[in-house]
Amino acid sequence: MSTEVLTPWEPEVLARIHHLHLVARHVVEGVLHGAHRARRLGPNVEFADYKEYSAGDPLRDLDWKVMARSDRLVIKRYEAETELACTLVLDASGDTGTGDGAVRGRLPPEGSKLSYGVALAATLAYFLHLHGEPVGLIVLGGEGVEQPWIPPRGGRQHLSLIFATLARVRAGGTAELASGLSQYAPRVPRRGLVALITDFMEESTDWLPALRGLARRRADVVAFHLLDRRELSLDYDRPLVVFSPEGGDALPIDPGGDRSEFNRVVSDWLDEVRGSVVGQGGRYFPTWSDLPLEDALRRAIQGLL
Amino acid sequence: MSLALLVPIALGLGVLIGGPILAHMARQKPVERLPYGAMMLVQRLVKRLRRRRRLRDLWLLLLRALAVAALVLAVARPEVSWPGDVPEFGGTGRVVLLVDDSMSMSLRQFAGGPTLFSQAQADAIALVRDLPDGARVGLVRLGGGAEALSGSLSTDRSRLLADLASLEPGFGRTDLSGGLRLARGLLEDEPGEVVVFTDQAGPGVVQGAAEELERLVERGSSVHPRIVEAGELGNLVVSSAVYGEGLEGGTITLQVDNFGPAEIEAPVSVTLPDASEITAFATVPAEGSARVQVTVPPEVPGGIGTARVRDPGLAVDDSRAFHLPRVGASRVLVVDGDPGSTPVRSEVYFLERALAPWGEVRGGVLPETVAPAGLARLDPDVHRVVYLANLSDPAAWSTDLVDFVRAGGGLVISLGSNVTADRYNAALRELMPATLRKPRSLVSGSAEGGVPLVLPPVDDPLFAPFTRRGRRALEAVEVRVAWTLEPYAESDDVRTLLRLEDGNPVLIEHLVGRGRVLLWTSTLDLDWTNLPLQAAFLPLVQRLTSWLGGEAGMSSSRFEGLVGERVSVPLPDGGGDPRLTGPAGEELPYTVHPGAEPAVRFLPTTPGAYALQFEGSKPFARVAVNTDPLESDVRVGLALATIEAELKPELFLRRAELGLWSIWLAVALLALQGVASRLLGRRITPK
Q1: Same domain, yes or no, for B297 and B351?
Q2: CA nearest A92 in B: which residue?
Q3: CA–CA separation, B555 vs B515, rounded Å?
Q4: Is residue B118 domain-shared with residue B186, that is, in the same domain?
Q5: pLDDT tens digits, residue range B618-657?
Q6: Would you call B34 and A104 a contact, using CB atoms and an 8 Å cutoff?
Q7: Residue among B31, B32, B37 minimizing CB distance to A228
Q8: How far apart are CA A4 and CA B559, in angstroms?
Q9: What is the Cα B537 distance to its own chain's centre?
Q10: pLDDT tens digits, residue range B309-352?
C-alpha cells in the first residue's frame, strides 16, 4: 500500500474537499435548526433559576433583594455560555478501509467504513463550526495524513484545514486505539467533547485504559462505532479466504457454515464494546454504514444536546 | 471368533489408505481472497470452534480411512470363523445314528408330557427323512449294552425307519462307549458322521466314552450330539434299602435320592415279602438325599421286599427290590435232654429264659421247649433253629435233623453227661463238625472255677455285638468240663468259633447244605460251666439264634443284580433242574454254566424279585434285581461335544466369507464420509 502523501492541490483531493463541504452542509442543514446549548452551569452570563441556600454555597450568589424583601436566602443560578471544544478522533486503520462496496485504491474507498467515518467527521465538524464551537481532529492510523493532530479552533480556515485533512486520509496501518488515545489525550481540552469514530477492531482490554484516561480528564466521550452490515453478517455466497488489511494470517471461511455461531460472536462483541464505553461514562452510537448519514448525525446531535 | 483372508496379497492395496489421509491433510482451500475488516471476530470464532472442529476433522479422516480399508478388505475376501456348539452336519453321506434307549430316556419332559426318548426318536426319524438320496445310514441303540440294529450302512431308509419306530426305552444303562465302537465298525474305520440322540445323563457315561470317541475322531469321523432335555422335572429314587436287625424285629433304612432341582416331599411305601405294606414320608432336598426308617413287624418271613417312591418324572426306577431276612423268625425248638426234677434243674432252664427274656409275647425269638420225643414236631417251614440240649440219643430223628439243616435250618448241639459219643458220632455223623471222644474235667478234683475262654476276634461278624463291655462279659465265662474231640481240620465248612485257654475247642461251626450246625462241647446249664450265670449268656444265645435263624441262614442264597447285566447263581447239589421265576411269577429261561461249581445264569430285563427253586421245594436263591443307579441320575453330565471339541476343535468351526458385506460396508462408509465431508466442509477451517 502506498504511503504517498497527497497535497491539497491535487485534483482528486480538491474534489473530495468540495464533496465533503457539500455533504456536510447538506446533511447539517437538512437536520438541524437552532442553537447549541452549553451543557455546563456556571457563573455569569444568563440567569437560569433560584435555589434555596445551603451551607457551602458562595455568598456572592445570594439574591440580596429577595432576602431583603422576604427574609429568604436564595441563590441565583446562571447558565454559562461557554465554548465547547470538540475533538474528532477518526480511526483510519487498514480495517476501516473494508466494507460493503469498498473499492480499493480510491480515497477513501467508496462504501468503506472509513469513507462513512470521514463523511461523519466532516459533517460533525461543519455542524460544530456553524455553532461557533472550536473543532479539532485526530487521525489514528491511516495513510496520506501530514498532520494527524489538528487542535480545536474556530474559523472557516480551520474548518478548511480539517476538510483538507479528511479528504486526503486513506485507510492503512493499524489504529492502535490505546496508544493513539493515550498519546493525544493530554492535548484534548479538559471537559471537552471527544467524538470517537472507529470500528473498535481491537481488544477492548487494550483500549479501555486509554478511554479511562479521557474520562479522568472529564472529557465527554461520544463513540461512533463504525459497522459494516455485510461483514458482520458474513453475507457472502461462497467460501473465501479472508485477510486483514492490517496484516496477519489469512483464514478460509465458508460463510454458510458457521454464520449462526458468528452472529453470537458479533453480538457478544457489540455488547462488550457498548459496555466498555458506557462504563466509562461515554455515549455509544452503533453506526451502520448502510444507513443514511443524516440518521447518524441526528442521533449524534440528540446525544450531544 | 477369528478372521482369515482368502486373498491376503490384496492387503497390499492397503497403501491406498494413505490416499485419503494425504487428501485430508492437503485439503484444497478456497481460491478467492477478500480483505476483511472484522478478522478479530473471525479469530474469536475460530477459537470457539477449534476443539469441535478438530474432532470433526478426525472423524472425517477416520471415515475415509475406514472406507478405503473396507474396500481393501473386500478385495482380500475375508473369512470369519467362530466355534459352534456342535460340528456341522452333512456332507459325507455315511451316517450312523446312535439312539439312547436307556432307562433315563423314559424321563418325561414335563408332567404328563412325552418322554425324552419319544423326542429323540422323532428327531432321529426326521433326520433320516431329511437325508439326501443315496446317503448310507446305520442304526445303533445304546440302552443296556449297545446293539447295532443294522449289519452295515444301508440306503434302505424304510427299514431304518421301521427299526427306529420299533425302539422303546428299556431299563438298562447308556452304553455310549459301546455304541461309538459299533458306529466305528459300521463306518469300517472310514470317515463318516455319527449322530447321537441322547440325554447325556448319568455320571461318567460321557467320560467313559472318551477313548472310543477319540478313536472315531482320529479316523476322520465327526460326532454330532443331538441332546434332548427335560424341563424342571427331576427324579426320585430309592437308592438303598438296608435291614437292620434288632431283638424286637428291626428297621429298614431307606435312602431316597433326589436328582431334581426342587425339594420334594414324597410318600415312600415298603412292601414286605408277606405283601404287607408300610408307608412313610420323605422330604428330600434338591439334588440331595434323605434317610427314612420304617419299622418292620416282629415277625416277617424272609424274602425280597420292595421300596417304592413315586415321582412324575421317571417312573421305571421308582421301585427298589431288597433282601429281607426272616425277621423275628426264629421259632426255636428246644429239646430238653435232661429235664431234671424241678424246672430249675432242667438242662434248658437258663436257655429258655435267654431265648425269651420278656416272655413269648414280646420276644423276637419264640422258643418251644419239648422233650426228646417232641422232635417229631420239627417242621422246617415253622422252625428256624433247633437246640439239642444234652440229648442222649438223637438217632431216631437224625434224618429229619439232616434234612432240616440241609434246607437251611440252624442246629445247636450242646453236650452233657447224657450224651453218648458213639450214638452221636453215628447218628449225626453228617452234622457233627468233629467226632466226639469223651467228656473231660478241665480242673483238678473239687477245685473251684474253670478254664476261661479265649476271646474271639472282634472282626468275626458272629461276635460283632461282643465289643467293649460285651467282650469283658465273655472274659468271666469259665468251663470246668467239656467233651474232647477227635482232631479235625479247619476248612471252609468247619471252623472253630471259640476255644478255651487250654486250647480245647468249645464252639465249632459246621456248614451243611444251606444250614449250619453249632457244637457247644459243654452244657447249657450250670453243671459244667458258669456260662448261664454270666452277663454274656443272654446276648450270646440271642446272637447264635439270630445268626442261625435269620442273618446267616440262607445267606448264600441272596443275590443282587442289575437289569441288563447277567446274573450268576451257584447251583446246589442234587436238586435237578431248577426253575427260574421273574418278578411277575413268570418262568424265565436260563443257562447252566458247567464246571467244578456249576451256576445258573440268566439276564434280567426288568427290575424286581427273581427266584430259583427246585420242584416242590422252597427257593434256594433269591435275586433282587434293580435298575442301574447311575441311570437314575438324570442330571446332565459332561457334554459329549466338550470332549470332542478338545479332541478336534476344527470340527466345530463355523465359517462365513465377508466379501459382499465388506463391499457394502465400504460403500456405506464412502457415502457416509461424503455426507460428513459436505457437512463438515462448510465450517471455517482454522489454520
Answers
A1: no
A2: B37
A3: 9
A4: yes
A5: 788 889 999 888 888 888 877 888 878 877 777 777 777 7
A6: no
A7: B37
A8: 133
A9: 42
A10: 988 788 888 899 998 876 655 678 999 988 888 888 888 999 98
